Amino acid sequence: MNDRADHALVLYDGDCPLCRRSVALLRRLDWFGVLEYVSFRDAYDPLLAQIPVQPERLQEEMHLLVPGVGTAYHGFAAFRWMAWRLPPLWPLAPLLSIPGVPRLGQRIYLWIARNRFRLVPCHGGICTIHKDRNTEQSGRTRQ
User: Fold this and answer.
1) Which residues contact 20 (CB under 8 A, 6 or more apart)?
2) How far apart are CA 51 and CA 46, in angstroms?
3) Which residues contact 39 (CB under 8 A, 6 or more apart)?
4) Are strands 35-39 and 8-12 parallel, antiparallel or unpaired?
5) What is the number of H-type helices and E-type strands within the chain?
6) CA 75, CA 114: separation in Å to the nearest integer?
7) Which of 28, 107, 123, 139 could form a disulfide with 37 if both were Cys (CB 3.0 to 4.6 A apart)?
C-alpha cells in the first residue's frame, strides 16, 4: 500500500454507482498516481476520523484533500485541481478558470451531486445495482 501522505485524497460516496464510475474513470486518467480514493462510507478506514470535513458535507459533494498543505477542495474546485494534474485533462484545465466557468461549473456539479441517485438505477438512495466489492476494496489501495 502506498503512503497516503504522498497522494491527494479523493473522498467520494462509495455507495453511489455514479460516484464509483467516476472514480474508475479518474483511475484511468491518473497516469502519475497522484490520487488516492477513499469512500467516506467506509467506517473501517481510520483516516475518516482525522479529516477536517464534516460528515454531512461529504454526503453533499466529493472532497479532495491536498497532501502536505491541509487544503480541502470540494465539488467543481476539486475537479479543477485534478484537471491540472491528470494529463488527459490538461487541455481542459485552463478553460476551467475562465471567469464565470467556476461558478457555472459548481452549480452544474451540485445539481449532478444532488440528483446522483436519480441519474443511475437507484430509488430513494437505495441502489438496485449490486455493489462491486472489488472496486470498494481497491479504493483503499492503488492498483
Assistant:
1) 12, 14, 132, 135, 136
2) 10
3) 11, 12, 13, 14, 15, 45, 136, 139
4) parallel
5) 6, 6
6) 11
7) 139
pTM for the complete prediction? 0.76
**Residue type at position 131:** K
Q: Three-state secondary structure along 18-84?
A: HHHHHHHHHHHHCCCCCEEEEECCCCCCHHHHCCCCCHHHHHHCCEEECCCCCCEEEHHHHHHHHHC
d(CA 120, CA 122): 6
Q: Which residue has the cell 452544474?
A: 108
For residue 37, list its beta bridge partners: 10
Let me know the angle formed at the C-alpha of 48 by 42 and 108, rounded to the nearest 5 degrees. Answer: 80
Q: Are 127 and 120 in contact (CB under 8 A)?
A: yes
Buried b (16+ CB within 10 A) or exposed e, 33-63: eebbbbbbbeeebeebeebeeeeeebeebbb
